[in-house]
Design brief:
By secondary structure, the chain is mostly helical. It has one domain.
């Protein structure tokens, strides 16, 4: 198992039922969450996130279609609220490798849903959608959730969780999915790996809106 998958297995052990599978981390034991309905994360044989990302995209597309189909006669503000309430779960995204190109497919499906809700053409520029819908880009939401998750892991009372995440960030680096994702966030938002524990996730989304606004003025 790679570092971020082990962290999730450990953190999820308290919600697993009796059917959980036992795995070991060194001399420690933990429960695998695959049988729990609370933790639906797909780990493929090659330990990639592609299967889970595809699952998330398929769920999002189905939920968006349901909202637009059953509530199509409501005004756009009401439909947008429903879209956020029922199509914004993204369960498991905190342990994705954020450099995986499949994440863009999830973001593309979300943007397509926003265009349909607001009746915009397919050619409507991506940078205009956050300003119209008053919602940050999905990629930034996923990054925000990941950073918050890492911060929780770094301050966890569990020594195993602390060790695994610290090793992935400062030693495993690009060879570990969690380290790779942290570096992705560092490059995108302009901070260093040493600052990950104190980065404000709220400021990330605020800066994103300013960036989108400036970009939109040049479109």
């Amino acid at each position: 198992m790679t570092s971020n998958h082990w962290v999730t297995i450990i953190l999820s052990s308290n919600v697993c039922d009796d059917r959980s599978i036992q795995y070991g981390v060194g001399h420690f034991g933990s429960k695998f969450f695959g049988c729990s309905p609370m933790c639906r994360f797909i780990i493929s044989s090659d330990l990639s996130d592609k299967g889970d990302i595809q699952r998330c995209r398929s769920n999002a597309v189905g939920q968006i279609n349901n909202v637009i189909c059953f509530f199509g006669k409501l005004d756009v503000v009401a439909k947008m609220k429903l879209l956020i309430s029922y199509c914004y779960s993204l369960y498991g995204c905190v342990i994705w490798n954020l450099t995986d190109p499949g994440i863009e497919q999830v973001c593309s499906a979300w943007r397509a849903g926003i265009r349909r809700v607001w009746g915009l053409p397919r050619t409507a520029h991506d940078n205009l959608l956050p300003l119209i819908s008053c919602q940050p880009p999905l990629s930034d939401v996923i990054a925000k959730r990941f950073i918050f998750y890492v911060q929780r892991c770094l301050t966890s009372d569990c020594d195993i969780v602390n060790y695994v995440v610290q090793y992935g960030i400062w030693f495993g680096r690009m060879a570990a999915p969690v380290g790779c994702s942290v570096q992705h966030c560092c490059n995108k938002y302009g901070f260093t790996a040493d600052d990950i524990a104190c980065v404000s996730t709220k400021s990330i989304l605020t800066n994103t809106f300013y960036r989108m606004l400036v970009t939109a003025l040049w479109i």
